[in-house]
Amino acid sequence: MKFSLVSGQRQLAQPNLSGICPSCGRTTHAKCGELKAWHWAHQTMRDCDSWWEKETEWHLDWKDQFPADWQEIVHHTEDGERHIADVKTHDGWVLEFQHSIIRPEERRSREAFYQALIWVVDGKTRQRDEAKFLSAWANGVPRNRLSSKRRINLPGGALLRDWAGSTAHVFFDFGDKRTLWWLFPASDDVRAYVFQISREEFLRIHREISAHGESKFDSLVQNFTAFIADYESPPPVPQPRKLKEISPHPNRTSMIRKKFRL
User: 210 CB contacts (<8 Å, ≥6 apart)?
Assistant: First the structure.
């Protein structure tokens, strides 16, 4: 964990400190070695959250893109189930940064628990995932040649196979500081809908606080939904062209009569 409670306040790990886990209330100790990022660990047990995974530099770098008070937010249900979200934005979206390969049943459990969930997935975990995904994107079908959205027919590699059934929004990060790849929840085991979006825009729309009404991300979701509906709607049936009726020249009959002395 990055934060623990020291004298009731959230605090980063520092040498020789003890704290309280904000989720389970058990004692934590600061781990401040030279090889790993400083963090908190439980004294007498493994991490209390079964969904928690060891954090890599990739993971920590993503969390640090957001305010500290948005990070590691404890969620709990009425029946007592508790989990720690990586980030929860001001607009209520939970961001989970997933580095390791996740089992489908755990993915579905997290999506049901958080509901308003966005995955950011490390696309570099497996060696061939990036090449397979980019090949599938290149063979995808855009609505028009300038569109940054495409429909990809599956299979398109292991990464799309693992995530196309997700009910949450999924963003693939291949280490390019400029681009993320948004897999829309309407994707299934037959087709995937993917939107190329800049990392800068992704961060901006989530870090900006909406004063009222709909968040910026919700607006993008609506645009993407409209794109899919338009994409899957049958093309309009061309109507036969109606020939314009040509009215006779008002003096044409009299001219003919005069010419032939009719």
Answer: 90, 91, 216
In this prediction, residue 262 carries a pLDDT of 47
CB neighbour list of residue 223: distance below 8 Å, 6 or more residues apart:
none
Name every residue whose Cβ is closer than 8 Å to that of residue 91 and which is 6 or more positions away in sequence. 206, 209, 210, 215, 217, 218
pLDDT given at position 181: 97
Which residues have C-beta within 8 Å of that of residue 26, sequence separation ≥ 6? Answer: 20, 42, 43, 44, 45, 48
Contacts (Cβ under 8 Å, ≥6 apart) of 182: 169, 170, 171, 194, 195, 196, 197, 224
Pick the closest to residue 205 from 59, 68, 89 (CA basis).
89
Percent of the chain clearing pLDDT 70 (strictly above): 85
Per-residue confidence (pLDDT) for residue 224, from 0 to 100: 83
Share of the chain above pLDDT 90, in %: 44
Q: Confirm if 231 and 143 have CB atoms less than 8 A apart.
A: yes
Q: What span, in angstroms and rounded, lies between the C-alpha atoms of 1 and 59?
A: 12
Radius of gyration of the chain (CA): 28
Predicted TM-score (pTM) of the model is 0.80
For the chain, the domains span 1-48, 51-210+218-230
- Top pLDDT among 67 and 235 is at 67
> What are the residues whose beta carbons fall under 8 Å from the beta carbon of 236, sequence distance 6 or more?
none
- Report how far residue 83's alpha carbon sits from residue 110's, in angstroms, rounded to the nearest whole number: 9
Residue from 61, 64, 23, 59 nearest 42 by CA: 23
